[in-house]
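Please, structure for the following, as C-alpha cells.
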Amino acid sequence: MKVTDHISQAKDTLISFEVLPPLKGKGIEALYKHLDPLMEFKPSFINVTYHRSEHVFKKKADGNFEKVVVRKRPGTESICGAIMNKYNVDTVPHLICGGFSINETEDALINLRYLGIDNVLVLRGDAAKNETAFEPEPGGHKFASDLLKQVVNLNAGIYLEDELKGTHKTDFCVGVAGYPEKHFEAPNMDTDMQYLKQKVDLGADYIITQMFFDNAKFHAFVKSCRDIGINVPIIPGLKPIYSKKQLTVLPKTFHIDLPPDLSNEVLRCKTDEDVEKVGAEWLLMQSRELKKAGVPVLHYYTLGRPLLVAGVVKEI
C-alpha cells in the first residue's frame, strides 16, 4: 500500500519508523529485536535506509595498496521484504545516488517491484567518508532530482534500454527529503525551496523532513512550501536526544540548530540516563503539538533507541 494511500485513508495522525540495515556480518535478529517493541503501535510503514559503497585501500603482501569497494550495510531490498513478511507492514526503502550506477538503480527498482514494495524514498545521499564533497558514481546520478526522474520514467514503462518493447510499468509512490533548516549545501532557503518544488513538479508524491527540534521551524517550512505551490503531504521527521555528545554531533552532522531550552536542560544533566529523560520529554512535547496541529504522520528516526521512542509513542 502506498504511503499516500495510508495518509488519505487515515482518520488521525499515523505513526512510522526508520531503521538501519544490520552491519555486514551481522544477522537480521538484532533488527527484529529493535522492531519488536515498536510494532504494538501498528506503524503504517517502516523506512529502511540505504548505504553507499565506499572505496578503501588495503595493504597487500608486497607493500602496495589495493583499492577495494566495500558496502558496510548491504541488503536494504531484502530487509524490506523480510520486514513485510514477518510483520505484515509496508516498507519504504531508501534509494540513493551515491555508490550506484543508473543500471544498478534500475535493477534495484525491478527487485523492489518483484517483492511487492509500493514505495521508495529518493535521496542524493552523503559524500563518501574519504571525500570532502559528494561525487557521483561513474555512470550514476549526481542529483536526487535525476534519480527521481528515473523512478518516474520506470513508472511510465520507460527503461534504460530503448529497444525493450511491451515493458511493464512500475507504480512506486515516491517520497523526497525536505529540510526545515535548509540543506547545508544550498546557498539560501529560497533556493532550497525551489529545488524541492522542482522534485514535486517532477513527480514526488510526498515529503519527509530532516530531523528538527523546534516545531516552529517545521510549521514555517510547511507554510513556505504551500506558499510556492507545494501541496503534497509533508511528514515531520523526529529523533530523540539521549546523550550530551549529541549537542555537538547533531548540529555538525545534520546541520541543524538545537533550541536553547533543550540544550540548556541537557547540559544540566549529570548522566546520559538523565539526558534520555530530557530527550524523551522533549520528543513527547514535539509529538503532541504536531499531532494537535494535524500532521499526517509522525515519523521517528529510531536509530539505536527503540525503547525510548516506544515510550514516547505510548504516551501519545
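The mean pLDDT is 92. The two ends are 25 Å apart (CA to CA).
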